[in-house]
Amino acid sequence: MRRARSRAPQPQAGRRTHRPALDGPRSGASGGVVHLRRRRRGRAAGHERGHEHDRAPRAGPGEPHGRRAYVRVPALGSAFVNPTIGVLALQGDVREHLAALRSLGADPISVRRPAELAACDGLVIPGGESTTMIKLARIFDLLEPLREAVGGGLPAFGTCAGMIMLADRIEDGAVGQETIGGLHITVRRNAFGRQVDSFEEDLHVDGLDEPVRAVFIRAPWVEAVDDDVEVLAQVEDGPAAGRIVAVRQGRLMATSFHPEVGGDARIHGMFVDLVRSS
Ligand SMILES: NC(=O)CC[C@H](N)C(=O)O
């Protein structure tokens, strides 16, 4: 298992640094204005990077006791280039996501502990089995940190079981099945049928010029979306035509299918761009 990263300060261009929290815009070293933004809540909690100077002082008045506040100081004029993107590694096809992210120049890490989650600029929740994944998240004390991180604005991308994990509401879930939530959708679990009903289809995805070969494996579909959710793709053929299978809502993305399978990293590319611009 990879541990939470603990590195010496790095001079690399584009590498993000953490500085004590400051309010409001302020002059940058080269005369430009650097907007210091408060670090997202979910990622401040349980933060355990290794260096004292990476750590912000304890939160000031008005902040919950013990919460550390962080700010991000982007290099002037450049988005951060190699974002650290975690893949929730409790169960499922973690390796395929790590490979896709690596091929895009992101810095992927496996996430099994709160400290690893806190080191992420974005998070992928893989395909697998959502009922198992959610139980393991509880057992590993990750469920609340995940909810706090996603609710606090951490960019997240769920595929198949990962879509279920991000959904606010489930139809046909296991009894009492919980989710991380955050994505304002109702997802229908196993909507296309059983494992033997798995299929592939060329799918047009909003934002991509050419269709993707979408692999559906005992997949959910999106039964309903709130107004703030953008539909990126719908099934084009067959009895399920019109069903919503890819969505975005702010910093959250989800697909019913598995873009991590088949060597086409364009949808991961959309997510990496989302992380870079967040
Ligand atoms: N391929 C998948 O991720 C299947 C999802 C699975 N049916 C679930 O409910 O979690």
Q: Could you walk me through the main structural features you see in this protein, from its secondary elements to its overall organization?
A:
Helix content is 20%, strand content 26%. By secondary structure, the chain is of the alpha/beta class. It has 2 domains: 18-72, no CATH class; 84-276, Class I glutamine amidotransferase (GATase) domain (Rossmann fold, 3-Layer(aba) Sandwich). The strands form 5 sheets. The chain has a 7-stranded mixed sheet with strand order 7-6-8-9-17-16-15. The chain is globular and about 45 Å long. Mean pLDDT is 79; it is low at 1-79. Glutamine (GLN) binds next to helix 6.
Note the beta-strand portion.
Answer: 25-35%
Count of discrete alpha- or pi-helical segments spanning 4 or more residues: 7
Bin the helical content: 10-25%
Radius of gyration: 19 Å
Number of domains: 2
- What is the string of SSEs from the N terminus onward? EEEEHEEHEHEHHEHEEEEEEEEH
Distance between the first and last residues' Cα = 28 Å
- Low confidence ranges: 1-79
Q: What is the CATH first-level class name of the largest domain?
A: Alpha Beta
CATH topology value of the largest domain:
Rossmann fold
* Approximate shape: globular
For the residues shown, what is the average pLDDT? Answer: 79
Number of E-state strands: 17
Spatial arrangement of strands, main beta sheet: 7-6-8-9-17-16-15
- Note the main sheet: 7 strands, mixed
Bound molecules: glutamine
What is the CATH homologous superfamily assignment of the largest domain? Class I glutamine amidotransferase (GATase) domain
Biased composition (Basic residues): 35-44
Protein name: Pyridoxal 5'-phosphate synthase subunit PdxT
Binding site for L-glutamine: 128-130, 189, 217-218
Region (Disordered): 1-67
